[in-house]
Design a protein that fits this description.
The chain is α/β, with parallel strands linked by helices. Helices cover 32% and strands 32% of the residues. The protein contains 9 helices and 14 strands. The strands form 3 sheets. It has a 7-stranded mixed beta sheet with strand order 10-9-8-11-12-14-13. Strands 2-3-1-4 form a 4-stranded antiparallel beta sheet, covered by helices on one side. A 3-stranded mixed beta sheet has the order 5-6-7, with helices on one face. Strand 9, helix 6 and strand 10 form a beta-alpha-beta unit.
Length: 276
């Protein structure tokens, strides 16, 4: 462990949810929300992420024709094992019959226990989109289904599907996420067929169910790739409610069969309509 670390405090007067989701796609050491600010901590400078964030802020300003006051404060601090402090703040989550908990909490009887240690910000079960995706998987996964988790993060959705009897493939463009997902599958004695670094267009297979918990803009961008991969059910999440129609517009040939809402987030369950 290094002697010092960097603490970035990010405060915005607009589009906080979008900015938080943007950061969650790029920073994997845990994001703390405190006093309406987002706090990132790293032993290495985050210059690349901050530059991308400023570019994203400019893009939002252009799209919505609104000025965004984005404040980024950086402090160099003595290292007091902040990862452990962050981990100790994480509580278990219950989503129906699933009990998602860090390894230092005991399992629960009469629950499907899933261990996810929160070293990564994404996919610990605490975000609304993760919880609603778990609920969707519970409703639509059947034993023997082939399922593809696109943008798998920690692998939590694939693990849930595997526990329900699905044959799971998963991918993520970030190598750290791929490594984390494989470790979490092993930690939970869950089976997967393949987990690879890449995106949906790097697979040449098709699946009964495809799940993608990313962000609305990416779901729009990769729509054609997701459509090629799915035979039946498509679960899309990471969508702020006000962008729902923008996403649905790219998937017009699918039938909307369910919306699962939590706060301002929505998960869409679509079904491929068969010709004839």
């Amino acid at each position: 462990m290094k002697e010092f670390y960097y603490e970035y405090t990010i405060t915005t007067d607009k589009f906080k949810d979008e900015i938080e989701n943007f950061l969650m796609e790029r920073f994997f050491n845990g994001i703390e929300e405190k006093n309406n600010s987002l706090i990132l901590r790293s032993e290495e400078p985050l210059d690349d992420i901050i530059n991308e964030l400023n570019e994203y802020k400019s893009a939002l300003e252009d799209i919505f024709e609104e000025k965004i006051n984005l404040q980024i404060d950086v402090e160099k601090k003595s290292n007091q094992d902040w990862v452990k402090l962050y981990q100790n703040s994480i509580q278990p989550v219950e989503i129906d019959e699933f009990y998602i908990h860090p390894s230092w909490y005991p399992p629960k009887d009469n629950k499907i226990n899933i261990v996810i240690d929160p070293a990564l910000a994404f996919g610990s079960g605490h975000h609304e989109t993760t919880r609603s995706c778990v609920k969707a998987l519970k409703n639509y996964v059947k034993e023997g289904n082939k399922l593809f988790d696109v943008g798998c993060g920690s692998g939590i959705l694939g693990i849930v599907a595997s526990k329900m009897g699905a044959i799971v493939d998963a991918c993520d463009t970030d190598p750290l996420a791929v490594e984390s997902a494989k470790k979490n599958f092993e930690l939970n004695n869950a089976k997967y067929r393949k987990i690879f670094q890449g995106s949906a267009n790097d697979s040449d297979d098709t699946y009964d169910i495809v799940v993608a918990n990313i962000i609305a803009d990416v779901l729009v961008f990769i729509a054609s790739d997701l459509k090629k991969r799915v035979n039946d059910v498509l679960i899309l999440s990471g969508i702020i409610d006000k962008y729902k129609d923008k996403v649905l517009n790219k998937y017009k040939e699918f039938k909307l069969v369910e919306e699962i809402k939590e706060n301002e987030w929505v998960t869409l369950v679509l079904r491929k309509e068969m010709n004839g």
